[in-house]
Amino acid sequence: MSSNSVATSRGRRFQNSEPSEVISLRGTGPILVEFVKGMKTGLPAADIPLSSPDLPDTPADLAVTWLGHATALIELDGHRILVDPIWSERCSPSHLVGPARLHPMPMAIEELPEVDVIVISHDHYDHLDKQTILDLARLQEAPFFVPIGVGSHLRRWGVPSDRIEELDWNQAEQVAGLTVTCTEARHFSGRGLVRNTTLWASWAFAGMTHKVFFGGDSGFTQRFSDTGRTLGPFDLTLLPIGAYDGRWPDIHMNPEEAVAVHALLCGSPQAGMLIPIHWATFNLAFHRYTEPVERLLAAAEKVGTSVRVPLPGQRTDLSDTWDQKVWWDGLSRP
Q1: Would the pTM of this model clear 0.90, i.e. be above it?
Q2: Is residue 33 in some structural domain?
Q3: CA angle 16-18-22, nearest 5°?
Q4: Which residues lie closer than 8 Å to 63 by C-beta, 6 or more apart?
Q5: Exposed end of the chain (fewer CB within 10 Å): N or C?
Q6: pLDDT in tens, 280-308
């Protein structure tokens, strides 16, 4: 483990640089009862509209196709970056139980154009999906960029070591004319009962002209200010806005915090463009289905932050005008 990330001296577990509490299973009886009852609140009241991705033959200077949850295809200065890809029906170790998709994937994985790099933020099941990784290893030739330790999953699944780049916080590599930097996030890791033996991260991408920040999954941390100052300002941020709750505030940011993080990364609330991720696809908390985007837009309007909320599967080119459709209207349960 590198000195950039924070690890305990005993057990070699990674830690956040700011004290962060992850909800414990001990003494959570009432929460488990609420989980059973309250998760219904987050289900959509009707079918979620989708868009069939309309992808150009040549990648744009700055565009994003959001495919649902944290999966997105980023176009940056003529290159393509695929982040946190998950095509499976469930974000779970089981094909039978666990959070299931609330909408189908907008495109088949075989329909993906050639990408230059595939990036993973951490090893939770809703961000690192085994079958998707196997399919991508077969269908694509791009390298996989992952935080320290996550490469062990990929190697165990049969991904060749020479296609895996493991980075620590603040480490960067060049690939296909892009600078890919692993940046600090405030979260945790683990695909079973053992936590934090692999690192979690956000990612910064820089082309010849533009810069994009991918938040992955994170709580609010002032470390985003350091990232904005040293690697920004960013033209575009993709930030998580869903699956928050007052009982785990340190490891999932809420919509208002996403607006604040955008300002730290871009230099001011009015700079750059924010596209929300980590919502709408899997039901992972107790809030209403549309609450994250409603709170996000209200917070953004107060400070003048530009936001685009695409349909799952919809491509947005930041050089084009944008007519925001309120496609989520009526999708929350009463």
Answers
A1: yes
A2: no
A3: 60
A4: 74, 75, 315, 316, 317, 318, 319
A5: C
A6: 999 999 999 999 999 999 999 999 999 99
